[in-house]
User: Fold this.
Amino acid sequence: SAIYTVDGGERAVLFDRFQGVLEETTGEGMHLRIPWLQSPTIFDIRTRPRSISSITGTKDLQMVNITLRVLSKPNVEMLPTIFKNLGPEYDEKILPSIGNEVLKAVVANYNAEQLLTQRSEVSAAVRIGLTKRAKDFNILLDDVALTHLSFGDEFSKAIESKQVAQQEAERSKFVVQKSEQEKLAAVIKAEGESDAAKLISDATKSAGPGLIELRRIEAAREIAATLARGRNVVYLPSQANMLMGMNPGK
Assistant:
């Protein structure tokens, strides 16, 4: 057929049997070609997603499984060059290779713990490196992001053990602090009792036995007041024989 159609979001690269790949691409719409002499190859120039997975080692020799999501598209002005050097499946040939290359180079600069705590920094480093490498092949990247990050079973167990150890350390620290507070409270109480005893001793020395007698009277009053409130309390005279003191003549 002498007519071919380029749909929206596509470009066509013409191959001429005499001139080879033509440097000028054709845009959307209906176009004419010379049958047998010219053949069009259609390229999708819209942004397409791709996932790239890689298992690589960290700076502290921990194995990590990383998945990268890439949004890519070809450089429209360089489509003839892409066609000549890579072909229509340029992204299948290039992105997995350079993706693994950049991931291994970036991850090797970080420890396993840093990959978790500095994830945004790692993602930015991967984006910069991968964008630069993709430009060498006339591929433009709209976005690069880390979507999955996991470690081996040994590292996961080590993280769990570390968390348990930290909790035990915090618990032991709390017990030690509690014990120190209790000791401090006991010392303060003992000092207070010692000061009170000293004050009483000094008062006794200065006032003589009168202070002790005053305290005895105050204690007797408190006891008498308590007994007075009781219903089953019987008061007896101080004499030993109450019946002998009665007058028989009356």
User: Anything to note?
Assistant: The helical segments are 79-85, 90-107, 112-117, 119-135, 153-207, 209-228.
